[in-house]
Amino acid sequence: MSRLRIGFVGSGFVARFHAQAFASVRNAEITAIMTTNPAKGSELAAFCRTLGVGDPRVYTDVRALTRDAEVDAIWFLAPNYVRVALIEAIADEVQSGRATLKGLAVEKPLARNLHEARQILQAVSAAGIPHGYLENQLFAPALVRGKELLWRRGAAVAGEPYLARCAEEHSGPHRAWFWRGDLQGGGVLNDMMCHSVAAGWYALTPPDQPLTAMLPCSVSATIACLKWARPEYAQRLREAYAHEMGEFCKTSAQILNSNR
Known about the structure:
CATH class of the largest domain: Alpha Beta
Strand order of the largest sheet: 3-2-1-4-5-6
Shape: globular
Number of strands: 6
Strand content: 5-15%
Distance between the termini: 37 Å
Radius of gyration: 20 Å
Structural class: alpha/beta
Largest sheet: 6 strands, parallel
């Protein structure tokens, strides 16, 4: 069986975890990395070689990576604020015939807002690229087994389930841009709630039906900042990430200008 050759777009915190995951994936290797930080790209490439998951070349131009003959599919892991520009550039390369892709997988959250999500979907669909959204919790053994028991045993006795409660937490964020609402989009509300919505949606959908059998009628949310809005903690953020913010803003402008 031929190996699927993967190009990473992004070299940050989450890219390292995806590289580790490929150590457990058969018949696939990481052959290229696109990044705006060549030093981090080289570091990630060395990490891939250590893991035995590939010997990737490092690019700073997403179009060049897309045209690489040794990239069959793209694993998109770049920050939220550059997703539309970079994915539209990828789609343009394919739609123009300059590149061919077997697939594009996008790390969560898909976009900063619904408008950008629709832009991404339209661009990828128009280019005819097979695509997927990297939501892993629907395949978590505990959730899959829990749904099976819920419907096979619980629903048989008490009727169809109608309420699911989900919770998320982690130790991040790990980069300065996440603290900027204009760059990130919605904080934990879209970065982590996407997991909870998907898990609850999956659990409540009858096993013999697709997720589209149950669609939301309305959505509401209440949010609160319990820690980082407090003056002493806000100051910690400014001190911890001040050295990164100027570079992030500069990088964002460069990407927007060069890939459209």
